[in-house]
Amino acid sequence: MQSPGKSLKEALLCAQSEERLTVGVYESAKIMTEDPDSVSFCVLAMDEEFECDIALQIHFTLIQSFCFDNDISIVRVSDMQRLVEIVGDKAEQFEDAHCVLITNPADGSWEDPALQKLHLFCEESRHLNDWVPEISLPER
């Protein structure tokens, strides 16, 4: 099986090409509130600069709880800049790439193999009591 980091990168790029990515804590919270069934996967990104940001930590706790309650797979990455390099195409996305959602395709007929591998990885991690596993994104 390929690394979870490589699968995450592939899933993000695929979702981005199909306009199924939501970048930003507030934008993600809005989608989760309005249509939680549309959310397939959640990525939380933290870097050293924001480790002491209490408001962000509270948002993360709420997002994690929401994901657990709605059976949404969730992972954490520690290199927000690398995440931005993969998904960021607008200047404002660089500021708030702490949360990235992958939504389901509108027609529901398509499955991404990389995303399926990530769901399996998350499921296996939960069996080991690692509820929000950390994934390292691959370099370019």
TrEMBL record:
Q: Which domain of life is it from?
A: Eukaryota
Output the Pfam families linked to this UniProt entry.
Ribosomal_L7Ae (PF01248)
Q: Which GO terms describe its cellular component?
A: cytoplasm; nucleus
Q: Which Gene3D superfamilies match?
A: 3.30.1330.30
Q: Where is the Ribosomal protein eL8/eL30/eS12/Gadd45 domain?
A: 7-91
Give me any GO biological process, just one.
regulation of cell cycle
In terms of InterPro entries, this protein maps to: GADD45, Ribosomal_eL30-like_sf, Ribosomal_eL8/eL30/eS12/Gad45
Similarity section: Belongs to the GADD45 family.
Name of the molecule in the record? Growth arrest and DNA damage-inducible protein GADD45 gamma-like
Please name the source species: Pundamilia nyererei
Starting at the broadest rank, the lineage of the source organism is: Eukaryota, Metazoa, Chordata, Craniata, Vertebrata
